[in-house]
Amino acid sequence: MRVYVYPGSFDPVTNGHVDIIKRAALLCDKLIVAVLVNSSKKPSFTLEERVKLLHCALADVPNVEIESFTGLLIDFMRKKKASVIIKGLRAVSDFEYELQMALLNKNLDPKIETLFMMANINYSFLSSSSVKELARNKGRIDGLVPDCIIDEVMNKFNQ
Ligand code: PNS
After folding, report:
1. Is the CB of 112 under 6 A from ligand 1?
2. Residues 99-114 pLDDT 10s
């Protein structure tokens, strides 16, 4: 069974993430969306909130599971018997950091591959931080995040 992992902070999930997840799920038997618990980025949404938003966004994708992890991604990969790390690239600016992570992970475990997928051009400008910036300033986030999470994201920053 081909188990792939798509790791991230998902603070919150965007339509760019959902697009990559749906396409990656077609390449494997099971895609685990792995939510990083201890992000140095200090997330705006709690782990429980991030997982709940992902469940709502991915309710119609059959072979996807949502889990959380702490520590090294490679250790999580081994625990789940997963062979491939899925990463999305939006622009050249993403490349340097992702290359470093892919090479580090390859050094830690040569059997595990990192597979890069190009983000849909329609979402190449999109990031969780820009969604938060918009929400904080009462800008529209329709079309940028799944419909079922819009209210929760807007409410988070406008209480
Ligand atoms: O959505 P993000 O914040 O860009 O995702 C980053 C993530 C979770 C993929 C990355 O921080 C990660 O893999 N963290 C786990 C810790 C780890 O394994 N580090 C070593 C590889 S550099």
Report:
1. no
2. 999 999 999 999 999 9
